[in-house]
Write a structure and sequence with these properties.
The structure is a single chain. By secondary structure, the chain is of the alpha+beta class. It has three domains: about 70 residues; about 80 residues, Alpha-Beta Plaits; about 80 residues, Roll (Structural Genomics Hypothetical 15.5 Kd Protein In mrcA-pckA Intergenic Region, Chain A), CATH 3.10.290.10. It has seven helices and 14 strands. The strands form three sheets. The protein has a six-stranded antiparallel beta sheet, sandwiched between helices. A five-stranded antiparallel beta sheet has the order 5-6-4-8-7. Strands 1-3-2 form a three-stranded antiparallel beta sheet. Helix 6 crosses helix 7. The longest helix has 20 residues.
Length: about 250
């Protein structure tokens, strides 16, 4: 275990024990997939409260670790996650903005990445999920993304953020993880295998280093540096014995 992993686990244990000793809810900042994988593999003793993961909406990738429950605390509390709509002042004259554009402008405000959750793009606007503690800073200070003037409004997370990408189809030799990743991102089989072996592929938030692993129907597959997609399974077999599979690929 390297030093950063050890510090992370110690910090998580401290949060779990603080929740138990004080009888209150305690939250981490937004965790990466690697951190979520470490968290789910940790052993907690009787001095720690149970946890759950929450990112502000159902299909969120970055999530808080939330320690505490109604039985221990005596009440129910929602995690401190805010949703901010970031939209161009004038859609007509706006640049076509990407996830990277929004994130870059947010980081330029001096914010840590760990206080920011997912950014969901919809019709050249974005729904940002972040800690409530930084929401006012973003609303007051973020006025431009790339060359586009924007306005920020705190809002309730709309149902639209849970909308899934459209189905698309690709042919693979088998349902192995390396074959599916290679087909979705137009890589060679050896390139996709290298990504998996390097620890850059997560299936349902768990690190998966087995190139022959077969993801289940509805699995969320994240490939660091490329994006993420939902695997929807085999739809039919071609005459040549290849498999036509369905995926939903998230736009970056």
């Amino acid at each position: 275990m390297n030093e950063s992993d050890r510090l992370f686990k110690n910090r998580i244990l401290e949060l779990a024990r603080r929740s138990f000793s004080r009888g209150c809810y305690v939250y981490s900042e937004f965790l990466t997939l690697a951190e979520q994988d470490m968290l789910c593999g940790m052993n907690f003793d009787s001095t720690c409260t149970p946890f759950y993961l929450k990112g502000g909406f159902g299909t969120a990738e970055r999530k808080l670790a939330c320690f505490g429950d109604e039985r221990l605390c005596g009440y129910i509390e929602e995690p401190p996650i805010a949703c901010i709509l970031i939209e161009p002042v004038s859609h007509k004259f706006a640049d076509e903005l990407s996830h990277r554009d929004y994130l870059g402008s947010l980081m330029a405000l001096g914010l840590r990445r760990s206080v920011l959750g997912d950014i969901v793009l919809r019709e050249n606007s974005a729904y940002l999920f972040c800690l409530k503690s930084v929401s006012s800073i973003i609303v007051e200070q973020l006025d431009r993304v790339k060359n586009t003037a924007v306005i920020c409004t705190i809002t309730e997370a709309p149902e639209i953020v849970n909308e899934l990408p459209e189905l698309s189809y690709t042919n693979v030799a088998s349902e192995r993880l390396d074959a599916i990743v290679a087909a979705v991102y137009r890589l060679s089989r050896s390139e996709s295998q290298e990504l998996i072996i390097q620890g850059r592929v997560y299936v349902d938030s768990r690190l998966t280093e087995n190139v022959s692993f077969s993801p289940g129907h509805g699995s969320f597959i994240s490939v660091r540096g490329f994006g993420r997609f939902i695997y929807e399974g085999v739809k039919k077999e071609t005459r040549k014995g290849r498999l036509k599979v369905a995926v939903r690929v998230y736009r970056l």
